[in-house]
Amino acid sequence: MSELCWTPMTELSRMIATKKVSPVEVVQAHLDRIAALDGKLKCYITVMGESALAAARTAEAAVQSGADLGPLHGVPVGLKDLYCTKGVKTTGGSKILGDWVPEEDATVVARLAGAGAIALGKLNMHEFAYGPEGLNPHYGTPWNPWDAKVHRICGGSSSGSGASVAAGICPGALGSDTGGSIRLPSALCGISGIKPTYGRVSRAGVLPLAWSMDHVGPMCRSAADLALMLRPMAGYDPRDPTTSVLPVPDYAVALTGQVKGLRIGLLRSFFLEGAGPAPRAAVEAAAKALEGQGATVELVDLAKVTLGPAASHAVLAPEAYAYHEEWLKTRAAEYGADVRERLRVGAFVTGAEYLKGQRLRTLLRDEVDTALAKLDVLLAPSAAIEAPPVGQNEVRIGSETFPVRATLIRFTRPFNLTGHPAASVPCGFTAEGLPMGLQIIGRPFDEATVLRVADAYQRITDWHTRRPPLAA
Amino acid sequence: MLDRSTPGWCMPGIMQYSPAMEKLTVDTLRTLARARGLDLTDQELAALLPLVEAGRSGLAAVTDIPPALEPASQFRIL
To answer: Are A139 and A42 in contact, with CB atoms under 8 Å apart?
Structure first.
């Protein structure tokens, strides 16, 4: 298998611009690897082989002609299959939209193409993004590449994005995150992902789960690649009125490798104390490592995060129901059983309950803002557990048993409610060899500091460079 | 943290929710579902009931909301 498939996006970009490698070679290497591995991994719903190779030939001609090249010129990417792609079917991981072909690209798809990126295909996901396991009854559930023998979940809903980047069948992918759907598959698949601030990246042309909680972001193998991919994606978009007019910084400039003087809060109650022993130890070790680089670390408690499940039920469920209402009345049988049931719950949330949920969000957001007024970032585990086998519905933490689904989103959901930027980077492996994630939460629109901490951590650790057994 | 205490112009208690809500049953849920245009089987209603009840009771349990607290808005112009 070609080493090109393990080359960082930053390096691929440099190699292509300096004619050390052709975009055609890079794209072909990934298509070959998809053909070899994706029968088992089930990451792709649609492989865009012909259009990817055609775009690669055009990109190669541009390099040869000395044209101005975008920052991602010739670099392949995967698109979660809820991003509208002009002329290419966009299923949302569903049967209902199984044959839908949009007439326009989502804003971020167009922006990535404008930066020179080449779409390899559309990636598998939990149906309509409504599930943190990443299951899919219609296209098959992606296989977590960190266990070649047991079919484990990848985390969701961006399961295909997580598994494909981890397995080297795409160097970077688009995910989306309403309760943890970028950070969870990043943690469970051993890759890096960032949910930017609400309003930092346009949601136009992205199938919604819950408009006020949906976030769009990249998933890659390193913080440096996240910085490269995020910059062209971010910024005001007239097609999404919630996007910010704040200028987009060059995130790569922020990656100094330095954390000296940064003030870091380590989230204790609910987060560290609610995690299994392995994720807890891994995150505490990560905090120590950053302290060793000159950051100051203090323990922090966020009391209001316990409001998260109630607020999320009040807001997410009716927003999702509102989008799906007509299909639930006319095409209910075409949904997978879990998503159909989850969506129906939203029919029974009243307007007053919805607004109560929105008021609870204000409380939670205030509390996180207050903590970040004197700290630069917060640290927490991305998930309380490692990837369980597909079909496992309960998990033990200490002496207690919890539902897998609620446990998965426990640490990520609060920051969908508040809108703060949050990344997940690999921070260790369990005794079984399964990856764990460190969550880094920052101030609104300060993705640069989140990425700076993530990158500094990756310069002193090698968790993000390891390759899973199924992809070796 | 911002001061969310009760300002002088806000009547305390006016924004509270009643904790004494009646429990839903499969029959009441069926009526509510039909009112929303959803025709669900008994089996589907029975599966939904604990999920709906858990959500309602979780929200009802939160009673100490400062009266002046406004809903979050996604339209933060920045």
So the answer is: yes
